[in-house]
Amino acid sequence: MEPGQDAALAGPDHGPDARVRAAIDRLTKQVPLVDRLGQLFAEAGHRLYLVGGTVRDAILGELGQDLDFTTSARPDEIERLLRTVTKTVWTVGREFGTIGGQVGDWQVEITTFRADSYEAESRKPVVEFGDSLDGDLIRRDFTVNAMALSLPDHRFIDPYGGLDDLAERRLRTPAEPEISFTDDPLRMLRAARFTARLGLLPNPQLIAAMTELRERLQIVSAERIREEFSKLLLTDRPRVGLDLLVRTGLADIFVPELPALRLERDEHHRHKDVYSHSLTVLEQAIDLEKSRNHEPDLINRLAALLHDIGKPRTRRFEGGGKVTFHHHDVVGAKLARKRLKALRYAGDEINAVAKLIELHLRFHGYSDGEGGWTDSAVRRYVRDAGDQLERLHMLTRADCTTRNQAKATKLRRAYDELEWRIDELAQQEELDAMRPDLDGNQIMQILDIAPGREVGEAYKYLLELRIDNGPLGTERATQELQSWWQQRNS
């Protein structure tokens, strides 16, 4: 390093405390690659720093498989040096100054010192390469991500008090939040994610800036917003982050259906707080993921959060203080489909979430009847859920937020019975592959018809029989088909 190159960092850097030193020692022993790269870049006359979330997570003892570096080297030189340690190199981020690679178990990204910002109306950040670590760190999103480790000499650099903020659970920006969020409006969504993921409390200035600059989020592409929103939902505690987005008005910009759930109360008409209920359903859906040994599931969480977004449009006041939300499941499914499409979610994700929202009340329709679930009702439930059955189980269970313990116990037992019935019938009838007893070729052969609409109608008729009566067998199915065909054509 040239003399005085990082002089601006010297003041706040009084040397790492014992926990940081211990974290650095663990890191370098666990990942000798960091020193190897540091030596490689130093010998080539460049400075290299481990930086950002990698340093933060190492201090927290939560280091993953990703290693982020920043360097004085330009992208071409980064690529040349990285190729000396691995053949697996990717350059898709070259225009942003980033070269990546896979080195053993570690995914490495090395980026030239830079200072990205948005022009007033641009949807893409302007990339500017810098010449010092100081200029790079002050442009980082939050102080807890503006710590660095010089390599290979292991000097800990924390010019903006990120270590203290991490210890005190504070969320601040290195520069003034108005400058930081103007430079990159997506950081306002990252604030919500770090509030949720790390349990950090945003300071009043940061919250005020998020509120004041929320409209600037409109210049950020839907794809980038979607990715950040999904990362927030996939944290263990997304509620606090979502609530921050709603309180600051940011949610109104990209998912207005969520704040719309805060329905105004009428002194004569009472109903549960739909907004709080939806956040509680999300929390309970996450708990069910864990109890059922599932990985964090974006579709499950989107469905839980959005399952009641049809209620504001369907709310009706009736006599006696009654409030209804008829068909909010169907309306909500359409609204969710439209919103998720605008956020550029994948088609299969959109279809799955919409199906779950549309079906989330189906259990109550069946369970409210006399005598419990018939075999036919169980089959229809399984058929309609399709490959979303397990998620529908979780959503329906999570949707019970009543404080009435007797009612909650009754609903839980009713759903326990339904799942037991599904398992029982599945063992007998292969419910997960439910289809008619005759396929399309058999239908055409028996009825002596060519491919066309009539084959589809016959197939649907036999499927309904299968659902109502269980497996019929080839002989009876043939008789039923011939009888239906004769009546249809008479």
UniProtKB/TrEMBL annotation:
Signal peptide: none annotated. It comes from the Bacteria. Gene3D superfamilies: Beta Polymerase, domain 2, cca-adding enzyme, domain 2. Residues 274-395 form the HD domain. One of its GO terms (biological process) is RNA repair. This is CCA tRNA nucleotidyltransferase. GO terms for molecular function: ATP binding; CCA tRNA nucleotidyltransferase activity; metal ion binding; RNA binding. Its EC number is 2.7.7.72. It comes from Microlunatus elymi. Keywords: ATP-binding, Magnesium, Metal-binding, Nucleotide-binding, Nucleotidyltransferase, RNA repair, RNA-binding, Transferase, tRNA processing. The lineage of its organism: Bacteria, Bacillati, Actinomycetota, Actinomycetes, Propionibacteriales.
